[in-house]
Amino acid sequence: MSGQWGFTTSRPTDARYGDDVAKYAMSHGEPGLKTFVREVLQNSNDARLDNDQPARVTFKLESLRDDEAIEYLTSLDIETWSEHANLSTDTESGEHIAEAIKRIKDEEEIRILTIEDENTQGLLGEENADESNFTALVRDVLFSSKSGDTAGGSYGLGKAVLWLYSGLSLVMFNSTLSEPNPRDESPRLIGRTRLPTHKSEAGETVYQGHGWYGNLNSDEEGARPESVWGDEAKSVADNLRLSRPGAPGTSIQVVDFRVPTAEERLADDELADQITEMAIEWFWPAIYRGDLEVAVEINGETKRASIDEYPQYKAFTSCLEDHDDSVSELNEPGDVVEATIPLDVPKKSDGSGGADGQLDLLIRRADSSEYQHRNEVAFVRGAGMVVEYYNRDRVVVGNQDFHAILLGGEARPWGTDGSSEDADTLVEEFLTAAEPPQHDEWVRTETLANTYSRGFRTAVEGIKSSVTEALRRLVAPNVDRGATGPQRLGNRFKIGNESRGDRSDRESPSSQRVTGDTNISFDDVYTHWSFSGEVEPLSDWNEIRRVTVSLIRMAEERATSDRLPVQNISSGTAGVSISLPEENGVQVGRLEPAPGTSKISFEGVSTEDRRQVETRLKVSVDVAERRDE
Amino acid sequence: MIDNRFLAGERELTEDDLRPYLQPLGRSIDLSPIDGRIEEIRADDEIDAQDSLIDAELAPTLHRTLDLTRNEAADAGLWHYLCIVRFPEFVHYRWDHVFDPESTGNMEEKFLKAGTDTYSNALHRIWWGAELTYEEDESGEVEDRDYSRTKRVLGFQELANDVLDHDFSRYVPVTHACGDLLCHDELDKIKEEGKYADPPSNSDIVSRTTTLLREELTVRRVEMMEEDDIVGTVEGLRDDVIRREAGWL
User: How far is CA B43 from CA A586, B37, B38, B46, B48, in A?
Assistant: First the structure.
């Protein structure tokens, strides 16, 4: 007995899909391996059962060849599936899928990645439930039903990576349910493919593109196959190398696993190493606290991801260890100081909530050998995932090197004997709403705007500047500051990284009146430069009137007059008007803040740069005496 | 000592004037071939005063006569002496057009710059232009050296400036590639082939190509590049420039 594919039909007048919307949205983040590992682990972490056991996740990577591959593909009913895939070739994504299946058949080789989690809820819920784990992960697009309001993923977008990382856009699920909902005969097995909308060969039937692998209970054209259960599911799972242990949880199999943006196919062992390292890099808080265990299995060998093997994250876990033993000054490497970052959570639109919350910033002085993630702040909330590493290198001139963590929401009391308070719960909820679909920063989002009343913007945008200010205070070098020394020194150093002399590089009055920080790096994925910066006047009497950002091509010995156009620029500062005017025929980024603005932050990207030669950021700032408001 | 009057050519400085500052080179070099060649150039009706052809025509004789090591040639004092005391008339003949009594920097550097700046001093520039572009004969004899590339580079002011003013010129394979691929003869040949409609001027091609090359060398270490790679890179950038400027890309 085995399952079969069925594709739901739609009317010719219905909307057609060239590709999956959620898949498309996720592919525009950062579709390297990082996105995949983060999203997958976040799903399992969020579905952890409410007990003192960790969620255990194992990534199993297998490359099947020859007979093994053929047997596997036969069990997958690949012939039926291919008939549909081959009807979808008039779209770009359909063409790629058809090419992938041809390659697999020609080479008789296929790579599959199975992510098996245990001590998680499993795919609970009726086939057609309005809201359930099953429908959220397998069926729906852009609906999310994770437990609690503060789960890591709150958009239901993350799961789209599963299909994005499958060359065939095909994912199989096998789940042991943690409770008999809807049935008491685990496991539950189902497959799902997302193809473009296509027509039958004769053209009379339109298939929406969503295909399901399971039991077809109806002869009607376009009926949706449903989950296979119990012994039958076990037998299908065996053939599909998708059997799982008895503990509740879900196995997800990504068929023809690939990294969408990788230039070349990585070998299994390299892929395994990268998955392990990324698990530690982004989930060390959950792993350290024993909430999550991650392992990678290739060729039958299982290796557990251990923080001990990646000592670069020990600097961060040490912050947690010493949360209760913080000192007042960073004198020695290993010393930890603590600062409080206030966060005024505004009331929700319905008038509920609102709190004078706070986040805990723990800063640990680095040893000279601890150079990885140096001078970065890991942002963490109760989900136990690092949302972002906020780079604060050179936050002050000559700063002491450090590693820091910012603990927010339910994570705030971690490392102490205390437990979270009501305000922490409100902060957790607020920060969750402030995460975009990729969950990789805390910013102003639509959810935030729809849920909270006035003040949410100042609150969320103030986090980074408060962190920066606290760091400036705590990691400043121990020198006796004369009254005029730093000011005079400041005048000597121009903002930006264009330090080599150039005729066009004369000191302008603005360079003596502002301070700040800039950063530019090349993004291999999008072949463009990403830049960011923050500027503020040195004197409180001044305000910023205008900031112009241009990208300068460097030559061997100095800057050239060539410029790379700025494609886009945005500002995290409220009330800034943004434009992209041309200067000498090349587009630059221009920010004009509202009166009274003293500090302005920005980020942006260049146009595509195929030459990838050294490029620097030039920031020109017009400051003037503060106007009376 | 080097005042406006000297720069304007109204005053001379003799060996006696500079005696306290002079240091012997340690060997004697007969400079008369250079005098002779300068005379010939000045008498040539085809070569105007201030023309870059002057540099091209003087270079072989200057370089053969001043058979210096690079170490000696890097000594700025030697060139200051030659320009100020020995050949000031030549410097005026070649460069008087840059003299501006209000802003004397440009003229001053024709007498006084040198050292690692191979672009400015009137004679130093010619010597280094030759040093970086000539071709040694198998015999190794000074008389047998081939200076045809030197003439092509120094005779094309934009090319000479763009090459000599930049760090990459210190690496001879690059200077040679630029001299061979960006000279008038080569560019004119490409244009005659008619492959590119409405190509830019030779000066624009040279200026853009060398700028792009300098940008390229921020991420590539030229001393690690094979000579074929260098030639291919310069050629590729040049063709891109011709195409792009002609609106092909």
Answer: 49, 10, 9, 9, 9
DSSP states along B216-231:
HTTTS-GGGS-HHHHH
- pTM over cut 0.80: no
Decide if A542 contacts A513 (C-beta within 8 A). yes
Contacts of B203 by beta carbon, 8 Å cutoff, 6+ apart: B158
Tally of structural domains, chain B:
2
Convert the pLDDT of each residue in A77-86 to its tens digit: 999 999 999 9
Round to whole Å and give the CA distance between A41 and A13: 39
> Cβ of B119 under 8 Å from any chain A Cβ?
no
What's the pLDDT tens digit per position in A517-557? 899 998 888 889 999 999 988 888 888 999 999 999 999 87
Q: Are residues B167 and B147 in the same domain?
A: no
Two tokens at A382?
A: 């109760």
Q: Out of 1.10.8, 2.60.40, 2.40.310, 2.60.120, which CATH number does the structure's domain A495-625 have?
A: 2.60.40
To the question of domain A4-308 being in CATH 3.30.565.10, the answer is yes
Q: Which of A554, A556, A614 is best to mutate for the B interface (most B CBs within 10 A)?
A: A556
Are A582 and A501 a contacting pair, CB within 8 Å?
no
A553 reaches B (C-beta below 8 A): yes
C-alpha–C-alpha distance, residues A173 and A250, integer Å: 7
A 470-529 residues with CB < 8 A to B: none
Residues in Cβ contact with A160 at an 8 Å cutoff, skipping those fewer than 6 apart: A20, A22, A23, A25, A26, A141
CA gap B150, A318 in Å, rounded: 66
Cα–Cα distance, A249 to A47 (Å, whole number): 9
User: Both B174 and B114 in a single domain?
Assistant: no
**What distance in Å separates the CA atoms of residue B154 and residue B179, rounded to the nearest whole number?**
9
- Whether B120 and B4 share a structural domain: yes
Q: How far is B124 from chain A (nearest CA, A)?
A: 21
Domain end marker among B128, B155, B182:
B155
Asked if B94 and B1 sit in the same domain, the reply is yes
**How many residues are given for chain B?**
249
B214–chain A Cβ distance below 8 A for any pair: yes
Q: How many CB pairs under 8 A join A and B?
A: 33
